[in-house]
Amino acid sequence: MRKTTAFAGLGLAAALVLTGCSATAEEPMDESMSEEPAVVDTVNSDGAALRAQLTALLADHVYLAGAAIDQALADGGDLETADVQAAVATVDENSVEIAALVGSVYPDAEQPFLDSWRSHIPFFVNYTLGKATGDEEMAAQAVEDLNGYAVSFGQLINSVVPELPAEAVQGELEMHAVSLLAAIDANLAGDPEYFSLLKEAAGHMPMTATALAGGIAANAGIE
User: Fold this and answer.
1) How many beta carbons lie within 10 A of that of residue 185, not counting itself?
2) How far is 32 from 18, CA to CA, in rounded Å?
3) What percent of the chain is predicted at pLDDT more than 90?
4) What values do phi and psi take at 20, rounded to 5?
5) Cβ atoms 99, 117 nearer than 8 A
6) What SS3 class is residue 206?
7) Spatial contact of 216 and 105, defined as CB atoms under 8 Å apart
8) How many CB atoms lie within 10 A of CB 43?
9) In the chain, where are the structural domains located?
10) Cβ neighbours of 129 (radius 10 Å)
């Protein structure tokens, strides 16, 4: 790109000399003719920063949720132990950070987003406890709740960012739920595959972050 621009500039200069159109002191050459076109920095741009922050926070969400559930299982399903409470508090801190990032663009949406995001985390806990205790009805209800949440969350995001179709956001949340539930099942079964499944669940987050950040950037005019 730069070599092509440089050769074009040389050609223009040669043409000016041959035709006797060189610049004089009274008529300075327009400096804009030699300027390179503006280039948008897609690596250090605000849009890239938004995508990177969302990716990191959403990936953390998966690992922190997995750690909290693992701790709850280690403590026999007792959600009131100090270790479980500490793990749950860390998950909530992550939720607050995600909501704050959304709020940095849409201040009025920060609290509704946080309330909605917080509401889906207990469904994973209910699924885990249901499976661990053999309460299939509880586990099935948790899956149904997660499916319903994906729909409502998609509608919430679409109401704030029309560029993001509710169905697309719903699909991202459903993928998140299915992949994390698969990891939970492996954990309950004592399957060492749990770790790779949890990694796989976290690996879906960059795609989710890219979709969300892209829609937000388009809506808010962020480059």
Assistant:
1) 17
2) 21
3) 79
4) 75, 25
5) yes
6) helix
7) yes
8) 8
9) 2-34, 46-220
10) 18
H or E segment and range at residue 67: helix 46-74
Q: How many residues does the chain have?
A: 223
Cα gap 69→107, rounded to integer Å:
31
User: How far is C-alpha 18 from the chain's CA centre?
Assistant: 57
CB-hemisphere CA count at 13 Å for 142? 22
* Full DSSP string of 136-178: HHHHHHHHHHHHHHHHHHHHHHHHH-TTS-HHHHHHHHHHHHH
In sequence order, what are the residues at sequence separation of 6 or more whose Cβ sits closer than 8 angstroms to the Cβ of residue 112?
156
Per-residue confidence (pLDDT) for residue 210, from 0 to 100:
95
Q: Output the CA angle 200-45-166, nearest 5 degrees.
A: 50
Q: Is 188 exposed, middle or buried (0-12, 13-18, 19+ CB in 10 A)?
A: middle
Rounded CA separation 91/84 (Å): 11
**Can you give the pTM of this predicted structure?**
0.80
Nearest Cα to Cα of residue 184 among 117, 121, 136, 131:
131
Residue 74 has pLDDT above 60, yes or no: yes
Say if residues 162 and 155 touch (Cβ distance below 8 Å). no
